[in-house]
Inverse folding.
């Protein structure tokens, strides 16, 4: 059996499977072949709630699996063993494509639903590779790299999109004269004479090896999935959407909403990151300086990019980095009362403190602020527009040092952290311990 | 030289010395897509959104206005007058001699020594851009007080800020390289290999940058994360690095303090370059061929980067004719 579609649902082989076997009318119909495959999956929990009976069910279970695996400490692999049964390949590829269509037609490209679907695909790829035999796994990765045109002599810039979105670090790659080195043969050709006290073969295994190749495969397929969704989205305005795809889109929305509500509460309270009133005394130096007004270069970025994301997450979802995202403002602030009465006033106050005041000469920046909260390009937050843009996560310290070096005056709390939100958590906890925060300020 | 130019001197420069032939072709070839900006009185580039149809109109403007400073956008626009229709942007490294975090001289602004060190740094950056990353179409500009590396590589001109900052980190040595590696034959076993034991790829770039830093330390630098005692010891034992004996150097510093040093010098490497300029897709930069009036030096394209001497090739004629020269 050709296993490539098991890992790459966008390969030519996969598209062939979809064109030969997919029938949208049967999306939610009982599928004997699917159920039979699941029943034959080793260690599978066969309770009916864990067994998808149609391709539509399987698509939803793919999303369920990802959220559970990522968030549920008591996650059981046996509930989803069929996802790692190679015989599921044909059904799984069709489910992937239906899911892509449903997500593309129902959600915006920067929505958390789209992001979650793409991330789930990357995660599934790595988990599946992990369960293959070593030789099978290596052959599979090499074949897919070849399909992705990442071969001997490829320029590193073939990976520029996944480097640009920081899924892959340039400093972890071996690049020689602009060519990315992935095979042992190329590594030895380029660097054999550089190592004197170590075996070049061992150095290859450590510096490049299978892990890096698998990371590239997973990230490239995620990128291609995103591009595929964009393409469907463009075309969807010219064609009628099948009612089963619309239903699948609604099911995805419901599933993600239910699951994330469950886990956002859990993670917001994880690791001592508690939702609560903003404590200005706990702001890290860069935020403190921004709130007091930025007088020279970087004023717009400081308010729109740095402060907006920091204040909104600090107030609504300080545990964002523990939970790896996937949350909307309205998951926590359901009627946007906190956003309108606490978050935006603080941002606008800081904008007024700038020299010259930000909105005096650039009133359009108000729209940019709303867009960074995830509510699209509008002048006020509205639940109907949520998801049109992404809720920006707070800038990392590294990014602040590059973008806004004048604001970074690191203090002792900054030393062990890499994001101002973490620094805020440290300072806030200390103030609580020292009894310097009043009881009512701690509460939501 | 290194003193400001008078309005008369600026007029003389633009009428007698300035020529469109000294404007690099990468600007002239698509001049209609570039935004120009001017500083007419030394208060900053307030006169922006200017466009020119060709070298003749640029020449007329410069002769008439004799600006204090002239700038051109790194971006190419469909409508540069409104900064709309962004098509691409040069990728830039800005190394200013006066802002070098480690430099051998004691001057307040710029001098021959720090200018020479800035040139050494940009040469190192260009070598890595070419030999490691295979980046092409690189132009080096002497800005008057430092250097601009202006890159028109087809992949980089359309790159977003994420990619630009990743390349910056790689070339500058601004990140401590990964040192923990998993053992492919044993899941629970990891190796700890310091950067200097990996003589290839990014760890090698980092090693070269850190070595440069250490060998140029004077001992009075204030480096985040490196306390005076550590700084003193780094200088005390740096002789080992002349023979690339990093093992002895690290042993004398101690493993924990060595990590502090690595982190501190990675930050130094980042601050050697003005990172804001590199990741900005719409910035304006000093126009090559124009006059840097604050220091009375010409901003010129460097043709031979190994032997370039700004004091020979970037001094306007009027400086030699000053009474006090």
């Amino acid at each position: 059996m050709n296993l490539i579609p098991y890992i790459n649902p966008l390969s030519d082989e996969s598209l062939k499977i979809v064109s030969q076997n997919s029938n949208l009318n049967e999306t939610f119909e009982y599928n004997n072949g699917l159920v039979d495959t699941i029943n034959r999956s080793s260690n599978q929990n066969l309770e009916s709630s864990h067994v998808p009976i149609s391709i539509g069910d399987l698509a939803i279970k793919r999303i369920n699996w990802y959220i559970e695996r990522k968030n549920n400490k008591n996650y059981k692999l046996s509930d989803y063993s069929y996802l790692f049964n190679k015989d599921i390949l044909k059904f799984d590829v069709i489910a992937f494509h239906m899911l892509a269509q449903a997500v593309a037609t129902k959600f915006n490209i920067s929505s958390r639903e789209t992001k979650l679907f793409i991330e789930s695909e990357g995660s599934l790829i790595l988990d599946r590779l992990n369960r293959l035999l070593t030789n099978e796994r290596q052959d599979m990765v090499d074949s897919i790299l070849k399909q992705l045109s990442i071969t001997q002599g490829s320029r590193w810039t073939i990976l520029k999109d996944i480097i640009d979105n920081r899924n892959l670090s340039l400093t972890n790659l071996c690049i020689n004269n602009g060519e990315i080195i992935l095979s042992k043969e190329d590594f030895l050709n380029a660097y054999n004479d550089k190592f004197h006290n170590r075996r070049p073969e061992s150095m290859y295994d450590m510096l490049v090896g299978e892990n890096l190749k698998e990371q590239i495969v997973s990230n490239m397929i995620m990128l291609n999935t995103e591009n595929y969704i964009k393409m469907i989205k463009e075309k969807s305005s010219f064609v009628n959407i099948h009612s089963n795809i619309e239903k699948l889109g609604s099911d995805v929305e419901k599933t993600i909403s239910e699951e994330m509500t469950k886990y956002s509460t859990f993670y917001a309270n994880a690791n001592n990151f508690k939702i609560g009133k903003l404590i200005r005394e706990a702001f890290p130096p860069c935020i403190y300086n921004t709130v007091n007004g930025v007088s020279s270069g970087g004023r717009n970025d400081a308010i729109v990019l740095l402060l907006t994301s920091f204040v909104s997450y600090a107030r609504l979802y300080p545990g964002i980095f523990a939970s790896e995202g996937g949350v909307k403002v309205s998951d926590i602030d359901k009627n946007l009362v906190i956003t309108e009465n606490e978050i935006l006033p603080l941002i606008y106050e800081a904008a007024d403190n700038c020299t010259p005041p930000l909105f005096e000469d650039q009133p359009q920046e108000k729209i940019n602020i709303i867009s960074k909260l995830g509510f699209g390009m509008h002048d006020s937050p509205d639940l109907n527009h949520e998801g049109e843009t992404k809720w920006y996560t707070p800038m990392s310290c590294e990014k602040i040092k590059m973008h806004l070096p004048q604001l970074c005056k690191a203090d002792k709390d900054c030393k062990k952290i890499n994001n101002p939100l973490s620094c805020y958590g440290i300072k806030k906890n200390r103030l609580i311990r020292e009894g310097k925060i009043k009881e009512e300020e701690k509460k939501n | 030289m290194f003193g400001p130019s008078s309005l008369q001197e600026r007029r003389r420069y633009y009428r007698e010395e300035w020529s469109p032939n000294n404007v690099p072709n990468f600007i002239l070839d698509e001049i209609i897509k570039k935004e120009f900006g001017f500083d007419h009185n030394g208060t900053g580039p307030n006169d922006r959104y200017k466009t020119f149809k060709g070298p003749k109109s640029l020449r007329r403007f410069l002769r008439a206005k004799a600006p204090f400073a002239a700038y051109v956008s790194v971006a190419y626009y469909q409508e540069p007058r409104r900064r709309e229709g962004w098509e691409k942007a040069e990728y830039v490294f800005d190394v200013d001699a006066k802002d070098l975090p480690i430099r051998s001289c004691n001057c307040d602004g710029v001098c021959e020594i720090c200018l020479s060190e800035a040139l050494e740094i940009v040469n190192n950056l260009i070598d890595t851009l070419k030999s490691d990353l295979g980046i092409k179409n690189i132009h080096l500009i002497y800005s008057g007080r430092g250097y601009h590396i202006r890159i028109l590589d087809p992949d980089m001109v359309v790159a977003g800020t994420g990619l630009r900052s990743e390349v910056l980190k790689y070339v500058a040595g601004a990140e401590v390289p990964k040192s923990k590696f998993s053992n492919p034959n044993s899941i629970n076993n990891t190796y700890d290999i310091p950067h200097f034991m990996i003589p290839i790829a990014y760890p090698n770039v980092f090693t070269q940058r850190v070595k440069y830093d250490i060998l140029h330390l004077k001992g009075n630098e204030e480096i985040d994360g490196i306390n005076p005692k550590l700084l003193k010891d780094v200088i005390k034992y740096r002789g080992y690095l002349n023979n690339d004996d990093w093992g002895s150097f690290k042993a004398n510093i101690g493993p924990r303090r060595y990590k502090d040093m690595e982190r501190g010098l990675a930050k130094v490497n980042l601050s050697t370059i003005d990172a804001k300029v590199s990741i900005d897709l719409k910035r304006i930069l000093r126009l090559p061929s124009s006059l840097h009036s604050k220091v009375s030096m010409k901003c010129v394209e460097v043709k031979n980067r190994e032997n370039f001497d700004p004091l020979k090739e970037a001094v306007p004629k009027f400086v030699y004719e000053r009474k006090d020269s």
User: Anything to note?
Assistant: Chain A touches chain B through 41 residues (CB under 8 Å). Chain A has two domains: 4-152+206-261, 272-442. The first strand of chain A starts at residue 175 and ends at 176.
